[in-house]
Request: fold
Amino acid sequence: MTENLQLGALLAACHWIGQKGWSPATGGNMSVREGDKHCLITESGKDKGSLTADDFLLVELESGLAPSGRRPSAETGLHTMLYNRYPETGAVLHTHSVNSTVLSRVERSGVLVLEGYEMQKSLSGQTTHLDQVVIPIFDNSQDISALVQKIIASTEHAPLQYGFLLRGHGLTCWGRDVAEARRHLEGLEFLFQCELQRRLLEAK
Reply:
């Protein structure tokens, strides 16, 4: 699949995310790899449900800068970190759904452990509900460079898979292409909703 087709798939995914209400009020950011040295990422302040191809900026993976001089998402560093550390990554989706945001605060530890759900198999490499899916949770920060370094340091010996949560902020997930990233997003959002409802029912 060419980059142009991937961008078209990403635009469709962004419109779908907007319809789901997972990136309200211009929140969130999405990107797709563009060769070995660049990615295309959403421009800051754009409504994700009504994006066009012109709303994606070419960004250098090494510097995180847009040669056009326009302002990419404030969280571009999270995307470039994933592309640089995991060369197989082809697309990254960062969303602000209610379930991911609330669950990231309800879970007080540094990881969210999901197990016993059939939908765990929506995640690449997961073949049974009996396995554990471990989603790291990092404290939110407005200093993205410092946050990136913290994530790198804490995952040096345990590579990231599927996604991670920022506490009180939302989910970042990815895949080898847009289709896989979108499947991971939908699967994780379903799992988050199930887990949150399970905890609420058990607390009664």
Remarks:
- Residues 15 and 192 are 21 Å apart (CA to CA).
